[in-house]
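step=encode ok
step=design start
structure_in=
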């Protein structure tokens, strides 16, 4: 049955001895849900509410909302006459309403279940989860930057265009390249942009029909082969050898008149600088192909090495990694692509052109003297991220950016040195760049897996490291502390992992295989969640009907 508010009644029937008696349908049902949710997490101390101390269980809006409530009080208008010619909605819309304080609590509670770089060390390798300086946020919120509209006349946004021009020049200088396409909105989008520029260059040479193979090392991020395949290239893998490096002989062996490009990550996803990168670039160029560099790991070498000096033709830069703009749910990504002299003419529109007294946004390929391959985005890209990235660059200065890279590398090596006696390094105990890669050989015969270690880290209050990537290493654990962690923070992280490693080796399997014990949710059936996701809330069946 439906209750007064037109929503299904609580599924449980409550007896007089039930402490929930008299709570009202909705509260009782929520409390029942909370108990069920908590039952699996509260261990030997289940609580009545399901809350765990001050950590609140938070149901869905649909479960706590009511249809007769909204955050605003508006009187029904007098003499209201619909003007939609009978097309207006006849039924209630069915969205749950909450009062303002309830809404506030809902979202604040959810936010408290979140783990982010502002709560603790975030060791996700390959992601560069560094501190997002509040200064950058403040700059991005200056009304002159935050309130501009992409369709405003160019004469009214000269400052914004100047900022884009300056950011572009910094990126070109840091990489020693010729041109930059700012508009791509993430690393993967930047890969697409760079590879489309390569494709355009190949087609301009009349080799479009014959050069259709892209070499991609086994250790590459999945976005690399996906990008190449998406625009019609055939992907040919190149092995990463036992030392974690791509060898020039293995590249040469695969080179021919059919090869359009190589997509190489440097520093690579094993956390190592590719020592043969310059030779590989030469071999690629000698064969008439292009060198796309995945620049996601640029944080390790800013101010130390310039990709242009290594023979790179195109490279994306994840502003949300290297230049500290927020990631994922915290903000949109931004993946500018720098291009070599050979590819610069093919840079997509729009781009900023600095005139004598003003800046211009070149919007149409026909307005460009060059040969833009097209456009990647409707407008010019992520303005807010440009402001944050430039703010990061200006506040660090060239010496500060160089030091950030040095500190990021130092921190990763500090973790490597602190764990090398207990955890196994697949490529020997040699220095790493900004991230350190362990495999799972140290877990042999313990009955504990990489996944179990990750879950046990959650109990210890840490976001897990990147796991099972790169694929070239068995049970990979890729740890990137970034430069913004203190020595004390690294020491605690190392001590925590040492404690876990010793527990695994001493046979305390339960600490791992049952973990996480303390998280709001225990182990999820991730396969089922991915294969058959429940994306729509359906009201619970009204089972109390028969009883009344
Ligand atoms: C993060 C990353 C990418 C993709 O970047 P997004 O901004 O997530 O699209 C590509 N390659 C490597 C090595 C990365 O770490």
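sequence_out=
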């Amino acid at each position: 049955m439906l209750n007064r508010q037109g929503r299904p009644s609580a599924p449980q029937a409550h007896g007089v001895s039930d402490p929930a008696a008299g709570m009202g349908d909705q509260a009782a049902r929520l409390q029942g849900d909370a108990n069920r949710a908590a039952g699996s997490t509260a261990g030997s101390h289940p609580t009545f509410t399901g809350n765990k101390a001050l950590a609140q269980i938070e149901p869905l809006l649909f479960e706590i909302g009511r249809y007769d409530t909204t955050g605003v009080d508006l009187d029904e208008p007098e003499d209201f006459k619909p003007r939609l010619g009978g097309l207006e909605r006849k039924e209630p819309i069915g969205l749950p309403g909450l009062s303002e304080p309830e809404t506030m609590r809902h979202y604040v509670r959810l936010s408290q279940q979140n783990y982010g770089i502002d709560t603790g060390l975030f060791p996700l390798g390959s992601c560069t989860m560094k501190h997002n300086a509040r200064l950058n946020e403040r700059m991005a919120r200056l009304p002159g930057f935050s309130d501009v509209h992409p369709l405003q006349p160019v004469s009214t946004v000269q400052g914004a265009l100047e900022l884009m021009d300056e950011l572009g020049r910094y990126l070109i200088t840091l990489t020693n390249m010729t041109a930059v396409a700012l508009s791509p909105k993430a690393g993967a989008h930047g890969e697409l942009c760079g590879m489309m520029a390569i494709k355009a260059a190949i087609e301009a040479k009349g080799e479009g029909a014959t050069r259709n193979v892209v070499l991609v090392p086994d250790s590459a991020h999945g976005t690399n082969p996906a990008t190449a395949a998406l625009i019609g290239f055939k992907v040919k893998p190149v092995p990463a050898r036992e030392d974690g490096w791509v060898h020039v002989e293995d590249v040469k062996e695969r080179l021919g008149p059919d090869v359009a490009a190589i997509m190489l990550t440097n520093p690579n996803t094993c956390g190592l600088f590719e020592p043969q990168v310059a030779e590989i670039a030469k071999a690629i160029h000698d064969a008439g192909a292009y060198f796309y560099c995945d620049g996601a790991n640029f944080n390790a070498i800013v101010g130390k090495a310039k990709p242009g000096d290594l023979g790179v033709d195109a490279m994306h830069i994840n502003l949300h990694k290297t230049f500290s703009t927020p990631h994922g749910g915290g903000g949109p990504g931004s993946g500018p692509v720098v291009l070599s002299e050979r590819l610069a003419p093919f840079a997509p529109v729009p781009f900023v052109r600095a005139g004598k007294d003003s800046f211009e946004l070149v919007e149409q390929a026909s307005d460009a003297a060059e040969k833009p391959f097209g456009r990647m985005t409707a407008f010019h890209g992520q303005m807010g991220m440009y402001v944050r990235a430039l703010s990061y660059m200006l506040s660090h200065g060239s010496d500060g950016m160089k030091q950030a890279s040095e500190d990021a590398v130092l921190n990763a090596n500090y973790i490597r040195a602190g764990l090398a006696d207990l955890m196994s390094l697949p490529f020997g105990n040699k220095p790493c760049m900004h991230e350190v890669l362990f495999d799972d050989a140290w877990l042999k015969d313990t009955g504990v897996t990489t996944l179990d270690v990750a879950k046990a880290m959650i109990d210890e209050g840490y976001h897990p490291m990147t796991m099972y990537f790169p694929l070239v290493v068995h049970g990979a654990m890729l740890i990137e502390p970034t430069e913004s962690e203190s020595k004390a923070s690294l020491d605690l992280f190392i001590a925590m992992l040492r404690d876990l490693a010793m527990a695994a080796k001493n046979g305390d399997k339960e600490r791992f295989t049952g973990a996480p014990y303390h998280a709001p949710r225990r182990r999820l059936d991730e396969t089922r969640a991915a294969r058959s996701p429940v994306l729509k809330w359906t009201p619970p069946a009204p089972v109390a009907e028969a009883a009344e």
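step=design ok
step=annotate ok -> The radius of gyration is 28 Å.
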